[in-house]
Input
Amino acid sequence: MRWFRNASVVAVAVAATLGLAACGGSDSGDKPAAQGKGGAPIVVASFNFTDSQILAEIYAQALEAKGYPVTRKLNLGSRELIYPSLKSGELQFIPEYQGAAITTGFGKEAGKTAQEEHDQLAKLFEPSGIGLLNFAPAEDKNTYIIKSDLAKDKGIASISDLKKLDKVVMAGPPECEKRLPCFKGFTDVYKLTNITFQTIQEAGPRVEQLKSGAVTVIPVDSVSPLTGDSKYTVLKDDLNIVPTENVVPAVTKKVLDERGADFATAVNAVSAKLTTDVMRDLNKRVDSDGERAEDVAKDWLKQAGL
Output
């Protein structure tokens, strides 16, 4: 999921001014490469949201445990910023989300199943020298929530049911307004004529506006703790505007060729054990409990025997 982040113009300007190495300013930060198995460090990147940073830490630590040298470039920003550096080889490994990569990264309509998306995305990346490893069962996709008291009072269980309301206000980041898996899908696919859009860039203020009743519906990640909070109701996407969003490692073919089958096996072993429930729990530990992404990644890898 998580296609709605920094606007492309801002992202490109930041990249041009500071360079990618200066952009990764999260708590995880840039760490020196671990020693082992020789060769240049594998540059593992993440987008600038919690789930992506946790996933990058999980894969990075799993590789380090197998002796592969890794350098982290985390919390970088949107696809508009990351894709050029991935294609150039400056970045070499990023946990992607299949549907969003297709629709936002390449402007194409995504397939209907995870395997279709995987095949489609592999072909889209191929000319840029980027390959895909196995996709994980875990998904992180756009999900829409409203307050549960409103859902119960008005009998709202799906996005289509929003037609029952006189007025609907969606709050989201600016990109949402023109994205089909977001506001544009509500107007163009669901044909809602009672809905307006309000730009609120950051997730925290969006949630506060939802709590206050100032807005009706907001997008959140499917791994967000809010999706399991009884105060909120997750709306069924009955017309399927949001594609499947299985996590998939996108890796430069240079790295895949140099590191060989053992590298692919190590990464695929991690992906096989990643589920949406796992990621929801790890996101909660970071976003709600205040733990560090690198610590929850380490704990999970230990529990998973990786």
